[in-house]
Every structure is written in C-alpha cells, then in structure tokens.
Sequence to fold (338 residues):
Amino acid sequence: MAGTIDRTRYASDNCSVGRTLAVVGERWTFLVLREAFYGQRRFEDIQSTLGVARNVLAARLQTLVEHGLLVRRPYREPGKRERFEYRLTDRGTDLFPALVALMEWGDKHLPDEAGPPVALEHRDCGARLHVELVCEAGHRGDGALGGLTARDATPVPGPGARLRDDATA
Amino acid sequence: MAGTIDRTRYASDNCSVGRTLAVVGERWTFLVLREAFYGQRRFEDIQSTLGVARNVLAARLQTLVEHGLLVRRPYREPGKRERFEYRLTDRGTDLFPALVALMEWGDKHLPDEAGPPVALEHRDCGARLHVELVCEAGHRGDGALGGLTARDATPVPGPGARLRDDATA
Fold:
C-alpha cells in the first residue's frame, strides 16, 4: 500500500494488528479456531484432529475463553460424567474473514498438486466465497471478484493515532 | 460456518491455514510484514519501529526472504558501505487482506478509547476500505458493506481433500 504514515513519528504499540496477534498470533491458537469453525466443540475431537499435545491445547482453549472468543459450556452424555465443550462467540466468529484470508493465501501459494483440501461455498447458493478488499464507495479493482489490492490502499492516521515519544516536530 | 466436512474423516495436515501459519504464524513475522506494507524497508527503521531484538528481527526477515514474501536488495548511501533493504514481493503483497482482516478485528474488539490508530483509504477516492467475505454469484449479506459472515459459509472437501488414515468407511 502507498505509505503515507511516517512510521518514525507515529507510535506502533497501539496497533490493532499487534493487539490481535497478542491474542491469536500463535499458530495453534488459529488452528484451534479453525476447528471451532468446522464445528468441532469437544476437547477430544479437537485434540484428535490437530494431534497437539493435551497441555498445549488446554492452554490455547483457556486463552481463547479468557479473551471471549470461545465460551465453555458443560454437557453430559448419558451415564457419563459432566464434560465441557467450546463454542464460538460473536467475538470469535468475527475472526472468520482473517481465517479465510490465511486459507486463501495458502491455497494460492502453498498448494498440493491436487489443489486445496477445502472449498468454501455460499450456503444459500453453492457459489464460492472469497475474502476481498472492498471500497465503501463501491469502486472495483483487479482482484478475483473485483476486489482491491494493497496498491489501492493508503493508510492514514486514525482517531487513536499517537505520536511516538521520540517523534521530531 | 455450517459444518459439512467430517473432521474425524478428513486429514487436516494438508490445510492451507496450517501451511500459511507455518510461514507467518508467529507474531513478529506478521508485524514485520505490517511494517513492509507501511513502506518500511530498512532493518534499522523496522527495528526502531517494532523495538524487537535485532537477532529476532534478522531471523524473521530471513524466514520471509526464504519463503519469497520479501526480497533483499542491496543499496548504498553516499560515503557509506553497502546495506540491504527488504521489499514485498507479489507473494508477500497477497497477504494484505489477511493483515487487514486482523487489523479490523482488533479495531472492533480491542480498541483504545480514542479509536483505531490507523484507517485505510482507497487511494483513488479516499473512501474507507474493508475486508469482506463475498460470494462469487454476487449475493449480499449482513456485513458492513453487504459482506457475508461465517454463518453463510459451508466448507466442502476440495480437490486436494484426503481421508484420514484412521477414517472409517
């Protein structure tokens, strides 16, 4: 994107990318979320799918619950003791575009010869879904579906922008 | 999203999310890319902005160069020795929607009181840019600009889907 924020002047420690990654910027965390989007809710199922160590999975689930992306709910199967399942909250569901964007990059740049293992369809019509960068004014770009690219984007200081402590006048 | 892939039957080790995170699924890596999108090219500038340890930054830049997201180019300022700068490749630029999606989640769910520190404008018209999940058939949803949500998405096995070794018939 065209650089119009002087990074030597503005603080970067209040960046929303950094804050988001502080919650989900760990490989297993995003893979746990991936399984949640696939409808996996139970520790044993997620553990079996990911092959992750149980203590690591427990820690990642805990992080996601603490930050409100998953909620932990008790359930009990007949004749068994109470257990817990993990469900996506609205806050967790809002990460879906980021997950799809990561998937689409991998589909394009790190594919198997056979192609992507998963496709996303619009539930209503069966057409493919994609993540696109879109302009509020409705302008079209060169992306797959008329989306824009990084070259069409100009970052500008937002309402929460702060000058760096060492910024010169 | 509506779950229609049985995760107990299909392999997950060929997932494009996992492969992508194996390259960029580390907090500093994404922050280095963020600075590249802001137009920062030089080690000293990126290091000053991020406040990351020099050896960590060197390792992350190396990873991004090895995977073809950045390219390392020599430059020389008058009277100084040759140095290197790092530029985004097309492969790196393609990660922009994922970066914006992470930023938008943070803008919404982890904001300062003052609001987001950065806004993205369409270079041509100045209107805001957003990442949206869009349907190839053009159907609209409830998202900010008519985009769809996770609830509109159905994952289906793609051409590269493989059954798990332990899948039952």
In short: Chain A has a mean pLDDT of 90. The longest strand of chain A covers residues 129-135. The two ends of chain A are 25 Å apart (CA to CA). Helices of chain A lie at 16-24, 27-37, 43-50, 54-66, 90-93, 96-109.
